[in-house]
């Protein structure tokens, strides 16, 4: 079932307004790429026989960065509150399901390791998570990592810094709060992990090429820095 055109248009307008406060790595164009990627995965998964609520996927993908913890400030409404307020105005029957996906889509939530039956089995959540991860790796992932590092005034490459491999949720939270780490360390700490975190067969196939590009990129950075060319 396709999404109602009025709800889609108003949702897009709301998201564009929200994303205008974020940096280029989390702007409307990122959201639109994730939406299109999620719809592509949903189509492929449906073709393979899985039951996918495409309408739910599109709405959740559109709203997935609303209330992002990296940008959320105390006193502001949460992502759930914004989503529920919008969808309630439209009397959308599956508002709570959309909000649940928005609440659970992030790498941060996965790193926390909180398990529940719904998160383990929701194909719609898995599709949006995979679409978001795919946009975090490969060519766009490289540009987004640099853009966010610039926004946070973090070094692009610091050879003296040692990446925290197999970073825990607590370490991730502490690093975010302290605003430490350089862009290249981020590849080792997070981006290189994403390939093996894909949940749908469609995303698994797409992730390898993007992962390989990032590996080559980081190798090239290290060669250029060492003058070993």
TrEMBL record:
<protein>
    <recommendedName>
        <fullName>HD/PDEase domain-containing protein</fullName>
    </recommendedName>
</protein>
<dbReference type="InterPro" id="IPR003607">
    <property type="entry name" value="HD/PDEase_dom"/>
</dbReference>
<dbReference type="Pfam" id="PF01966">
    <property type="entry name" value="HD"/>
</dbReference>
<feature type="domain" description="HD/PDEase">
    <location>
        <begin position="23"/>
        <end position="146"/>
    </location>
</feature>
<dbReference type="InterPro" id="IPR006674">
    <property type="entry name" value="HD_domain"/>
</dbReference>
């Amino acid at each position: 079932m396709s999404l109602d055109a009025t709800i889609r248009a108003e949702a897009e307008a709301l998201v564009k307004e929200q994303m205008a406060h974020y940096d280029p790595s989390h702007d409307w164009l990122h959201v639109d790429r994730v939406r299109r990627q999620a719809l592509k995965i949903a189509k492929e998964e449906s073709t393979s026989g899985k039951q996918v609520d495409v309408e739910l996927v599109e709405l959740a993908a559109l709203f997935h960065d609303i209330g992002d913890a990296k940008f959320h400030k105390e006193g502001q409404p949460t992502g759930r509150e914004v989503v529920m307020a919008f969808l309630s105005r439209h009397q959308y029957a599956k508002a709570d399901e959309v909000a649940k996906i928005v609440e659970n889509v992030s790498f941060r939530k996965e790193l926390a390791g909180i398990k529940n039956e719904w998160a383990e089995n929701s194909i719609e959540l898995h599709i949006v998570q995979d679409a978001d991860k795919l946009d975090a790796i490969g060519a766009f992932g490289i540009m987004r990592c640099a853009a966010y590092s610039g926004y946070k005034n973090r070094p692009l490459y610091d050879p003296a810094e040692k990446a925290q491999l197999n970073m825990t949720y607590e370490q991730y939270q502490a690093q975010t709060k302290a605003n430490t780490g350089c862009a290249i360390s981020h590849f080792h700490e997070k981006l290189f992990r994403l390939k093996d975190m894909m949940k749908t067969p469609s995303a698994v196939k797409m992730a390898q090429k993007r992962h390989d590009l990032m590996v080559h990129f980081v190798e090239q950075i290290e060669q250029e820095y060492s003058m070993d060319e």
